Amino acid sequence: MKARSLLLLVAALGMSVLPSACLGANTLLSSFEGDLSSTLGPSWTIDSPPFNASFDGVGATDGSQALKLEHNTGWSQFVSLDGGTALANLVASSDSFSLDAWVPETRDWRQVFIIMQGAGQSWSQHQFDLPAGSSTATLDLVATGIKANAAAGDRGWWQVFLAFQGGDVGGASRISTTIDNVRFSAIPEPATQTLLVMVMSSMLLGPRWGKWGKG
Fold this sequence. Notes:
This protein is an alpha+beta fold. About 25% of the residues lie in helices and about 40% in strands. The longest helix is centred in the first third of the chain and has 16 residues, at about 1-15.
């Protein structure tokens, strides 16, 4: 009984202290450290006009710089990434797509649209409202069916688009939205999480487990 109670306690603690990398692995796509590169090779494309892009420390959440986009108040497209097979494979193996955003306090309203299309997936557009200050927009690739469609397609091509619209107090015709830490996340299967907890429990119990386990 003593051993069982201790094991349950360690397992519970294990779930609470397991590193996020074990509970959900993040794959960085872009950090915008002075350029528009992605970890897959291809770089993002900025349509200009309507966009003017620069790199700024304000709003950075990964590294020291973020991508500041000055754009029109109406629907402004596109910031795009044509990632090909590598991007399709990443979508097919991930559960969510996220980006961090920063919006000035002068914001009246702001929205970002995350759009994906590729082999097996038609244009799929999703809207997120952004508050003033820092926030994160996360697209659930499982609930939207995007992950399954990417996995079922031939993965020959894949594209991500970001579009913006909004307004600032005072009615300025040009506004700004800053983004950073664009990433994919994958959540391990329950069986994998259970195995991780068992391994951690064994490590924490150490050589004493042999003695207590017999008692």
